[in-house]
Amino acid sequence: MDQAENPRDIDDVRSAVAESPEFEELRDASSRRRALYRLMAENPDPLWREMGQQLRDGRMRPAEMLSTPEYREHLRAGMADGLARFAQLVGVVDEHLRAHADGEPSGLDAEGGAEGNPPGEEVEDQGPILRRR
To answer: Residue of 85, 86, 123, 133 with fewest CB within 10 Å of its CB?
Structure first.
């Protein structure tokens, strides 16, 4: 596996990001907005999909989402969920950093599993966050 697939330090991560095709798209605010609207329009949740389609097609401006009670509540719940997932991610990263405080690089083992999991411990994929069971 080369450095781009398994970066060892922050400089490798920066380099891999800067060389990615997504980087150029994400540098531009209007491209980021279009990408967000596209993701929302393709979301399996019907309300996210409805909002995304309207934003993508120019039938609604972002500020108008707050004037519809159902949209406003869905946004509030989505932000609360995102905040909870972020807090979980910070906890996982903190735990990982403490477990690898000896300075040894970490990542995936040869079988593609997470390195450093206690024997017999399964890791369950729950979207963008990995939760230990």
So the answer is: 133
- Sign (positive/negative) of CA torsion 118, 124, 130, 133? negative
- Which tens digit of pLDDT belongs to each residue from 64-112? 999 999 999 999 999 999 999 999 999 998 888 888 877 655 554 444 4
| Domain layout of the chain by residue ranges | 1-67, 72-133
Dihedral, 71, 77, 81, 87 alpha carbons, nearest 10: 120
Q: Which two tokens stand for residue 106?
A: 């970490």
How far apart (Å, rounded) are the C-alpha atoms in residues 103 and 64? Answer: 49
For the chain, the straight-line distance linking the first and the last C-alpha, in angstroms and rounded, comes to 29
User: Rounded to two decimals, what is the model's pTM?
Assistant: 0.56
Q: Where are the beta strands (DSSP E) in 1-133?
A: 123-126, 129-132
